[in-house]
Structures are given as C-alpha cells and as structure tokens.
Design brief:
The chain is built from twelve helices and 20 strands. The protein is an alpha/beta fold and 435 residues long. The strands form four sheets. Strands 3, 4, 5, 6, 7, 8, 9, 10, 11, 12, 13 and 14 form a twelve-stranded mixed sheet that branches. Bound molecules: zinc ion (ZN).
Length: 435
C-alpha cells in the first residue's frame, strides 16, 4: 500500500489486528520451514502451525530467553550463510555475545522500522540529524538510524558516540537541529558548550531523541534526567526503546507519552513472572515477536525489561498502543520489606538532589526475603547528611536505604568503565542466579 493511500484511509483497530494475525501466521510458517531452533522446539511441543488461529493461541507457544538465544545461537540462523549481508552482536551481559545475522530483506525491514519510528517522532526530510551512536563495532542501532533517516531523506551527520568533543564540533560546523544519543552523552556534550561559555539555546537544536536510558517516569512525564536534558538544550526531549534482538524500535510521538508500537513489525506481550498475560495496563516483562525477520527470526522473545502498555488511543490520533518507559530489568527487581521496586526508582530520587555528584547502588541479601539496599553517594556539600538523603529517598520510594557518603572521585572510580558507554550504577550482590 502506498503512503498516500495509508494516510487517506483511517485503519481501524480490527483491521490492524487482522493484518497482524496474518503476519504472525506467516512468521510461524517461516519458523517451521527455516529455523533449525524452532523446528526442534515445535517438534518437542508437538505444535503445528496450522493449529494457530488466534492471538489467544500465542500463549500455548514456548518463550525464548536470552539464555536460549546465546546457548543455541547458531541454530537460530534461518538462511544460508551467503544470504547474510550484515552481522550484529550484542554485548552479552553474561558470557558470550549473541550474534544476530541479517539478510538484505532484514536491512530493508530495519530501515522501514526506523523510518516509521522517526516519522512518529516528527522527523521530516528537512531535518538535519546528528547520530551520536556508533555505526561500527557490529552495533545495530547506529546503522538502523542511518538507514531510516536515509529513507526519510533527512540530512545525516554520523558523529558516533565515542568523542563528546567531536560531537560538539560537528554541531558547531554542521548545525543539526536534531540530536540522537544516550542521555549521558547528550549531557556531556551540553557541558562542552557550557564550559566554553557558549549559549546552547542559540545552536538551534529543537529535538533530542534519547536512546538506551528512559527519560520518562512511570506517569509518562519527563524524569529528572529528561528534564535536565530539556533544560540544558532548550529542546523537546523524546525517547525511543529498542534492542538488537528485536530489531524494532518504539518511539515517542511528538506528544511524548510512550513509544508507539508498529503492529506490522512486531507483536508485543506483557507477561507476569509465570508467563501469563498481565491485566491491561499493568506492568510486566516485555515479550516480543518481531515480524518479517529472515536471518535470525525469534518467537516470544523475553527481553527481561519491565514496562506497561498504554492501550488507550494517543492524543496524536494514533490507535496503536504505547509502551511506557522501561521500569527496570526483571532480574534487578528489589524487594525491600514488602515493597517491590527497581533501581531506576532510587536513581530517579537521587537525581533530584542537585548536590549529589554521582552515586551507585548495592544490593545484598541475607537469609530473610528482604533485600538490603545500600546507596553510596558522592557529595561535597557538608550540609547534606546521609540521614537526610535516606529520608528524601524514602519519601519518594517508600524504601529507606542505608546511605554512605564518599568523595565524587571515589564514585567515578567505581562506576566509570572505559569499555561501557554508560556508567555502572547498580551492583547486584544477592546470593542467587542471575540471567
Ligand atoms: Zn502519539
């Protein structure tokens, strides 16, 4: 269907569902025919694709975990090796990296996904967009952004993520009006300008598209991090959520209230700990089935990320549900004296205290079922005591952690790892298996 036709015809929710079901059936047929991993799995579960008639049947199908994908990585390759045109690798938080093989059709799909996603965020061909993400090192994100922007016809400035000074210089020279990058990089670059006494508001940046870290809180309002970015750059701050495995992204529209789903490209389920669908609007694990993938197709892939879907239509007019910000990783959930929360909630409370220069969280467990939470903060302000910080965190999160004050240098030493793009602020020392 041509773009013009799509615009003139308002697609109803039923039509979207019918189209998605047919794409999903097609995807299952492809898995059965081409994916060695799923052929085996379907056989073990005595599942035949022809039995699949409705979305309700989806829950009968097994889930795929990151451990499955890493453990049997090669069996997920569903095409002949010579059809692979690009290889992506995830950093693999545990052990070996996971490889995602992409065909030419997959790159076309990736471009389409990113085109739709950026259009949702209001990007047009007249925009000049700086990509502050890596296009090399077998990463998918930077490549996807470039392909999507090329389809839109926007001007792309491929700055990369490694050098904030270079990013700042390219902003001066090439005058982009949109920046894409992880929040910490965008804050660092802002500081480069501020330190030289340059006025950020005069640079003409009107939009930031933030990747990697959520910039909204659970109520879909900007988090302290999102607000800091908005204030530094005097620009609209929008978020997007994606991962290499799902090869699909969810971008905020210009209203900025959650990432819009692209039903033609991905099926999203939100499941509880036992793998059952949660009630509409409740938080749970994001489980995805990316549609139309040829190289490394997946079925019901457990992202490990916790979020909720907002099913009601958006004020932008879109009927597609929106995915709220990632509240945390499933395995990082903290249980403190009857309250469950994610490290991000604690981080968010700490970020509201401007005197704090860096922090990290440590969680330990002893023999009871409650986690022991310790917050180590870097602070030079002698008027701020550990007890006051604990009170302020408790007021925001209902959990009162142990707070330890150290020098900001000590925090930097512990949290900054040259090989990682984000500071490490969460240390899980609990005695149990991780992912
Ligand atoms: Zn919207």
């Amino acid at each position: 269907m041509m773009a013009a036709e799509q615009e003139s015809h308002v697609v109803t929710a039923d039509e979207v569902t019918a189209q998605q079901l047919s794409l999903l059936q097609h995807h299952l047929g492809y898995l059965q025919q081409a994916s060695p991993y799923y052929q085996e799995l379907f056989q073990q579960h005595d599942f035949s694709v022809v039995e699949f008639r409705s979305f309700a049947d989806l829950t009968k199908l097994p889930l795929t975990s990151k451990a499955d994908l890493a453990g049997s990585n090669r069996k997920f390759l569903a095409v002949a090796e010579e059809q692979v045109v690009d290889i992506c690798q995830t950093s693999g938080t545990t052990g070996a990296p996971v490889i995602i093989w992409q065909t030419e059709a997959d790159l076309q799909r990736l471009a389409r996904n990113e085109q739709l996603s950026f259009m949702t965020a209001g990007i047009t061909r007249s925009d000049r967009v700086l990509i502050g993400a890596a296009l090399d090192r077998v990463f998918m994100a930077g490549l996807a952004y470039f392909l999507g922007l090329r389809r839109i016809g926007a001007t792309v400035i491929r700055a990369g993520s490694g050098q904030p000074a270079l990013v700042a210089e390219l902003i001066r020279q090439q005058r982009p009006n949109v920046l894409i990058g992880v929040p910490s990089l965008l804050l660092l670059v802002a500081r480069q300008f501020q330190e030289r006494g340059e006025n950020l508001a005069q640079l003409g940046i009107d939009k930031l598209i933030c990747i990697g870290e959520p910039i909204r809180n659970e109520n879909l309002l900007l988090s302290p991090l999102g607000e800091a970015l908005q204030k530094s750059w005097s620009a609209q701050v929008l978020g997007t959520y994606a991962s290499t495995e799902m090869a699909t992204s969810f971008a905020d529209c210009t209203i900025g209230c959650g990432g819009h789903l692209l039903p033609e490209l991905i099926v999203v389920e939100i499941l509880d700990d036992l793998g059952n669908p949660v009630a509409s609007g409740k938080a749970g694990e994001v489980v995805v089935t990316p549609l139309g993938i040829k190289g490394t197709p997946l079925l019901r892939y457990r992202t490990g990320d916790i979020a909720r879907l907002h099913p009601e239509p958006c004020r932008c007019g879109s009927q597609a549900p929106r995915l709220g910000p990632i509240l945390g990783r499933r395995t990082q959930m903290l249980k403190c004296r009857g309250t469950t929360l994610f490290p991000a909630a604690i981080s968010s409370a700490i970020q509201e205290m401007s005197a704090i220069e860096g922090y990290y969280l440590e969680v330990h467990s002893d023999f009871d079922l409650s986690d022991q939470l310790r917050v180590v903060v870097g602070c030079r302000d002698v008027s701020l005591s550990a007890a006051t910080i604990a009170e302020l965190i408790s007021a925001k999160t209902r959990v009162k952690p142990e707070v330890i004050l150290v020098s900001p240098e000590e925090i930097r030493k512990k949290t900054i790892r040259p090989e990682l793009r984000k500071p490490v602020t969460f240390f899980d020392c609990r005695k149990r298996g991780s992912e």
